[in-house]
Design brief:
Blueprint: E1 6-9, E2 19-25, E3 32-33, E4 38-43, E5 48-52, E6 57-62, E7 69-71, E8 75-80, H1 186-194, H2 213-224, H3 252-267, E9 270-278, H4 280-292, H5 300-314, E10 320-323, E11 328-331, E12 337-339, E13 341-343, E14 346-348, E15 351-352, H6 360-376, E16 389-392, E17 412-416, E18 420-426, E19 429-443, H7 449-464
Parallel strand pairs: 12-16, 16-17
Antiparallel strand pairs: 1-8, 2-4, 2-7, 3-6, 4-5, 6-8, 9-19, 10-11, 12-15, 13-14, 17-19, 18-19
Helix pairs in contact: 1-2, 5-6, 5-7
Domain Peripheral subunit-binding (PSBD): 183-220
Pfam families: 2-oxoacid_dh, Biotin_lipoyl, E3_binding
Cofactor: (R)-lipoate
Length: 473
């Protein structure tokens, strides 16, 4: 015997994300699903992820078509559960709707906020750890002492799941004095704090009264409007295409990259230096290394990455980030190397972690493997974040140079143009040599031109005479 279907709402996917696009459904109506079985693949502004369902049963309904954008806290899928066998649950216990819990992701950038406190318990038998639904028997302490915040709302709703969201007669009940306000992420708290918004006065539009970013933005708009009140909801960002126009929504990885590049231009006072270098030594070194071990090829980008890692050990100012919230310069002892990769979904910047521990061969292999993975499908968020420095070989596009945009919140990006035969003076005589242009864009807040020029000159010297560094390759 089965009861009414239980509605699984789209969980909080972390880092202030308020919605996700349904890429594809992994189940259909009538299919049986197990606890923690992935039911849908969704794409956010950060990455594509599979969403596991925290309870088992038969799929009763899919609440969105593939390609639709679903808000955090909105119904995603309904599951009809079979009544548990006798003795399967404690006497007098009636399972209610699963309560989402907000999990604060590990901080990866200086802009990330602190985690929350408390603990929460979710349905038994599930071990899903997707941000937004931790369905283990008890919420454990996360690394570094962080805990999951308790699910918004003190008790299960007696109505339809999420039924309290959107009520306009009275605001959502405020938490007890001293308790945390249920919000979607620390970034929402920061947005409210910087704009003087009292979170306790807001009626959250998310499931179980969860305060979302759009709620805070609506409150900010209301405070700034002449009438002092906001519209019933955010105006849809939809416009009709004029004749001869095509309007393509910015979503997923492309939207994330657009926001990151825009933020870089807004916040980073960048400067650019460049130099031409004779690449004869670089080309010859690569040929010799690949002839010695053809099964472990070394790429030009791998060699350039290794030169940059060595340069960062000599000029550590460029391996840093600016924490604007605390007015601090954060310098890193490790190098997580990002590199630009063109994929069918747009430009992404995957990250090779602990690049300072790798040789040129190891870096080449890691870059090749990550590039192929990025082109064949979406990468998980941890492989697209946490970079401290970025390299780019835009010479593959047949161009000589580029005024690159720094990958926020990093402090610098170095690029290499195409290698072409050009007139070059060697030993006082003119000769045709393979020449490349190296360009460094850097955050002028972290260093001055002397440091940036010294770093670029070091990398150029490595390109021109790499034999001097054979012991470090």
């Amino acid at each position: 015997m089965s009861g009414a279907p239980r509605v699984f709402e789209l969980p909080d996917l972390g880092e202030g994300l308020t919605d996700a696009e349904v890429v594809s459904w992994l189940v259909q109506v009538g299919d049986r699903v197990a606890v923690d079985q992935p039911v849908a693949e969704v794409e956010t502004a950060k990455a594509a992820v599979e969403v596991p369902c925290p309870f088992a049963g038969t799929v009763a309904a899919l609440h969105a078509e593939a390609g639709a954008v679903v808000a955090v806290g909105a119904p995603l899928i309904s599951i009809t559960e079979e009544e548990p066998a006798s003795g399967a649950s404690s006497p007098g216990h009636s399972p209610g709707p699963a309560l989402p819990e907000v999990v604060v992701p590990e901080a990866r950038t200086p802009d990330s906020g602190p985690g929350g406190n408390g603990a929460a318990r979710a349905p038994e038998g599930s071990g899903a750890v997707l941000v937004g639904y931790g369905t283990g028997a008890a919420a454990p302490r996360r690394p570094g002492g962080r805990r999951r915040r308790p699910a918004p709302g003190a008790a299960p709703s007696r109505g339809a799941p999420g039924g309290g969201a959107g009520t306009t007669e009275s605001p959502a009940p405020a938490p007890s004095s001293g308790g945390p306000v249920p919000v979607v992420s620390p970034l929402v708290r920061r947005l409210a704090r910087e704009n003087g918004v009292d979170l306790r006065a807001l009626a959250g539009s998310g499931g179980n009264g969860l305060v979302l970013r759009r709620d805070v933005e609506a409150a900010i708009a209301a405070a700034r409007s002449p009438s002092g009140s906001a519209a019933a909801g955010p105006a849809p960002a939809v416009s009709a295409a004029a004749p001869g126009e095509e309007r393509v929504p910015l979503r997923g990885a492309r939207a994330a990259m657009a926001e990151r590049l825009s933020r870089s231009r807004r916040e980073i006072p960048e400067a650019t230096v460049w130099v031409d270098a004779d690449a004869t030594g670089l080309v010859e070194l690569r040929r010799r290394l690949n002839a010695a071990a053809p099964d472990r090829p070394v790429s030009l980008l791998g060699l350039l990455a290794r030169f940059c890692v060595l340069g960062l050990s000599r000029f550590p100012e460029l391996n840093s980030a600016v924490d604007t919230e605390h007015a601090e310069l954060v310098r890193f002892s490790h190098v997580n190397l990002g590199f630009a990769a063109q994929t069918p979904r747009g430009l992404v910047v995957p990250v090779v972690r602990d690049a300072h521990r790798m040789s040129a061969r190891e870096l080449s292999a890691a870059i090749t493997e990550t590039s192929e993975a990025a082109r064949s499908g979406p990468l998980p968020p941890e492989r697209l974040s946490g970079g401290t420095f970025t390299v780019n070989n835009y010479g593959v596009f047949g161009v000589d140079g580029s005024a690159a945009i720094i990958n926020h919140p990093e402090a610098a990006i170095l690029g290499m143009g195409r290698i072409v035969q050009r007139p070059w003076v060697v030993g006082g005589e003119l000769a045709a040599r393979p020449v490349t242009e190296l360009t460094l864009a850097f955050d002028h807040r972290v260093c001055d031109g002397a440091t940036a020029g010294g770093f670029l000159r070091f990398v150029a010297d490595c390109v021109e005479d790499p034999a001097l560094l054979l012991g470090d390759l």
